Task: structure prediction
Amino acid sequence: MRNFRLNLLRSKENKRELPAGCEKCNVSNLNQKLINYKGYKKLRIAIVGQPNSGKSTFFNSLTNFKVNTANYAGTTVNYHITSVIVKNYEIELIDLPGIYSFGYSDLAEKVTFEILAKEKIDGIIQVIETPAFAHSLVLTMDLLTLDIPLVIALNMIDEASSKGVFINSELLEYLLSVPVIETIASKGYNCYKTVLKIINEIEKLHNRNFKDNCDVNNNVNNLVSDLDNNLVTLGNYVSKGVLQVEELKYLVKGYKNIWRNLIEDVFRSTNCHIKDCRLMPACLMNIEKMELENKNYLNYYIKIRNELLKIKSFIIRNINDFVITYDKPKPTLDDILDKVVLHNIWGYVLLSLILLITFGLVFFVGNKLGDFVESIADRFWNLLRINFIIDFLNNNSLGFISPLIRGLVDGINGGLGIVLPYLIPLVLFISILEDSGYIPRMVYLFDNILRKFGFSGRSILAFILGYGCNVTAIMALRNLTSFSERVLAGIVIPLIPCSARTVVIMGLITAYLGPVWGLSMYLFNLFILSIVLLIIQRFSNLKYPALIMHIPSYRFPILKSLVLKTYLKIKSFFYNALPVLILGTILLNYLAYFNLQDVINKALSLLTVNLLNLPEVVGLPLIFGVLAKEYALALLYTALKTENVLSVMTIPQVLVFTVFVMLYTPCISTIATQIKEIGAKYTFYSVVLSLFIAVFVSTIVKFVLSFIF
Amino acid sequence: MELKENNFYKILSIKNNEVLYMNYGIIEGVIIKVKSISLDGNTIYIEIPELGRKLALSKEVINDFEVLELNNLELNNINQD
Result:
């Protein structure tokens, strides 16, 4: 590391009356550009960074917003927007999915790319994972070409120090000519200061004299008008090998200008769907994906792009040499842990143990919690004298109100006493796995298994998330680079038992038949999933997409983050699922009151009674199960008029019912997400496939069980 | 080329997808260390010491690179530089 101290000369801010703007430069006056709203001027600031750099944590700490976070690349696959008031500005903060560089490769990265291209963005905060700083400049160099005010937040600065990585932020600021601030987003350290800094940068840009700005731009254009010559000039710097600080700063500036010079050139010869795109130079990164009107340009641009990539790599290496200091290398805890976690034998033993422990704890905690909630609920309803009220209504010609009250009580009991107790520990344990950094290691362990089915290990992220919620899992498919892999995974993910179906398995199988049977259901599900994947692989001839994935450092899960994630899932249950569950239970009670329940059950009896040998009353719970799977269990109790299922159904019937619920049609939320992510056609295939598999497998299970019981 | 665990390799050239690999820190001239290889030899866990970055790769990705195995002497020379 070359020690270098800088005395930066800061010019006084030039405050003068602003002109109206300059048409030639297409730059408007700040006061015109900002919309006045309730006395606040509006600004839109994007939080950008490479995957797993802590953007969402940064966003959460600034806004008190609660966005899901985790320790693996690709947690955020869509953007989140919220507004905060800072000084006299109403700032719209956008938390964008991670992007490695403008040469995007998956749909989540494309979301970021297109928002930066199409939307009006006043400023950018780039959040950098400081412990992995050396690679973060790949994105910084691209962001510099946008000519939008930029501030760099060196995040996780505490973790970097503990790992022996030190960054000379003053020198970095000088070399890149953008402000650099050290932050710890998880503790909120300097996050607000970063926002103040970006506001300052935006104000500085708009306080420029626009006429001067116009002339400067023209000079720059003249300076770099001859593209090839300038590439040669920059190339000469590269051939020098080692540069002085001033030379490096000049090279960064030259690199930035050469991109800007390419804007018109590329625009003329391409047929890009994004009009007036400020990312046109960055599109050169993806030139192979663009439709060029003149194909002769393609090779020329690829040549220029590759030259620029070499210059970019050279700049990044030199900046890294100047600004990073490493402590003496020593084997890190990560290295020691990885020796076991990724071991060819012990890795899989550990994986099985972790999955077993998770299952066991969900069962144990869920049971205890369920008993506890049930006892409290019983006391509460007794206190309200619910049974007395219902009897009173029935005896006084007000019987039509009693289904409403009964439905309300049953719905709340079902939601809080049956669903929630299993949901809380399951979400908590999945969150621990997510935050610890173990899930990306599972990608490595599963890659050679999934390859046999035509999937890369990367898709295991979605499959694992599927055990929590199918909706989240299908959203996570955006991280897959291959379209066919994304579609096929999107079709089969609904076969994975999500937390709602886990509730059914726990509430019926584990509770009545024991944990071994419960675990067997998961293994059976894996077996069915493997068969389906093999058949799909056979007919679709899905080509294995090569795996490349960043493996993050291990992190000890922070209690605050775990509580937040569990809270988000539980909140979603309370807001989305519980009201529908209560309404469903009320409706079921009214259907029974008007004797309509029997009509629906009769209509389904061909499937339920004749084919699967189940009681006729399970028809309606199965219909409601399409809304959300947990309803199938909660409403089964109502339909059977008892929570002691084995007093009404035989063991084979309980098993067949659970297998059917585990596999049949995905819930409404999953279907809606599938339509959005893989399209209506493939969603239709998925629904038909899961229904067919559910009927087929349940029938076979019924047949096999008839020999055992 | 058959990679071996705990050995260092220099990426001499990249045949395809330069932009994609650059996103993950793999560029011409970079040195990688193979930390672990799966039983079937299809998945490889590597480290790029220069960047402190760890990656899981499939062998198809490695096939896109022309690599040179570094012996101890070469490695010491690079470390001294």
Chain B has one domain: 8-80.
